[in-house]
Structure to design on (355 residues):
């Protein structure tokens, strides 16, 4: 058991923190929602009613989509884009998809390689892109969920202000949708750029995301 | 990845659960709007005031009792329902010559604003509404 916890600590701790913070968001969001309810002369809603509402849904989904977009872009673009001195970059002589030998696929695989890396053909092509594909699909799904929950939450506000609701088609062109979308995208892109650049000159001893403390600033593709 | 799939499935189930009762809510909201219009038209102020939201009732009854005050308002005649929209705690029922806004209360939908006419991109102008 201790060994399992130790060997899976990153996933377990971040997964656990995610749930705690999500519940915290739900309580804070419920308080905001009920303030608006009272201001409109309507009764408070229950915790369960709120966490199944469009308002909670859009607040969750708009953050999810941007996180998965960040990972999708980071995974895909770092195939080709390099950053001298950054542990987030591959070494400068390896831009692109690299050779089958370097990637240990097909006849270059070894006995411990995943089956789909060994078999070749479409299975290996899919497996070779599976991380980006899944991140991209989750991004698109979350963004779609944001638009569906967003139009319902937006229309709830519209009706509370005695205004007409919008269709989904109108909403995805409306400022509210793009304001929610772009404010999340900009922060994710800033975080990636900051991490890639700051990690050239700064160190965090023992972190997998940092170069060893004594590594030179120009050392690229080295992680602690 | 399995954990994410379960999470995504959960979100879908919750979304479906949220959407499943929209049809019946639309019927309930439009039913209240029609009942409200008919009560006003029939001169039944008590019945009309019984479906008003508390804030709206308070505003209507500022100068005289609601059952009298509501009948003094210049409200449109009953019409047929053209379109009903329900989003969360709010509903809008468009009738031939009127638009009614309703809010969700523990006992069902109540009229928050009625006798409303559109003002372009500005909020509807309503004959009956709360402060």
């Amino acid at each position: 058991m201790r060994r399992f916890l130790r060997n899976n600590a990153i996933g377990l701790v971040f997964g656990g923190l995610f749930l705690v913070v999500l519940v915290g968001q739900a309580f804070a969001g419920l308080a905001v929602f009920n303030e608006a309810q009272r201001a409109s002369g309507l009764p408070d809603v229950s915790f369960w009613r709120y966490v199944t509402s469009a308002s909670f849904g859009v607040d969750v989904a708009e953050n999810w989509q941007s996180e998965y977009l960040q990972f999708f872009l980071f995974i895909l673009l770092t195939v080709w884009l390099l950053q001298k001195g950054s542990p987030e970059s591959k070494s400068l002589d390896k831009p692109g998809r690299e050779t089958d030998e370097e990637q240990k696929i097909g006849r270059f695989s070894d006995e411990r390689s995943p089956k789909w890396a060994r078999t070749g053909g479409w299975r290996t092509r899919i497996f070779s892109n599976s991380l980006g594909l899944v991140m991209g699909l989750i991004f698109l799904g979350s963004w779609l969920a944001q638009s569906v929950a967003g139009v319902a939450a937006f229309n709830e506000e519209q009706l509370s202000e005695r205004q007409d609701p919008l269709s989904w088609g109108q909403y995805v062109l409306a400022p509210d949708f793009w304001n929610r979308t772009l404010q999340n995208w900009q922060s994710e892109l800033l975080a990636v750029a900051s991490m890639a650049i700051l990690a050239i000159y700064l160190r965090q001893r023992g972190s997998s995301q940092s170069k060893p403390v004594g590594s030179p600033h120009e050392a690229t593709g080295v992680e602690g | 990845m399995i954990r994410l799939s379960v999470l995504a499935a959960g979100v879908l189930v919750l979304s479906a659960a949220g959407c499943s009762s929209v049809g019946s809510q639309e019927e309930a909201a439009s039913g209240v709007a029609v009942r409200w219009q008919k009560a006003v038209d029939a001169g039944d102020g008590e019945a009309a005031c019984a479906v008003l939201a508390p804030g709206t009732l308070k505003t209507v009854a500022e100068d005289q009792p609601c059952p009298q005050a509501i009948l003094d308002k210049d409200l449109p005649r009953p019409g047929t329902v053209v379109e009903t929209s329900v989003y969360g705690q709010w509903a809008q029922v468009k009738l031939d010559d009127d638009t009614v806004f309703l809010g969700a209360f523990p006992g069902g939908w109540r009229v928050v604003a009625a006798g409303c006419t559109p003002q372009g991109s500005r909020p509807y102008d309503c004959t009956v509404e709360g402060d």
Notes: Chain A has two domains: 1-52, 53-224. Chain A touches chain B through 32 residues (CB under 8 Å).
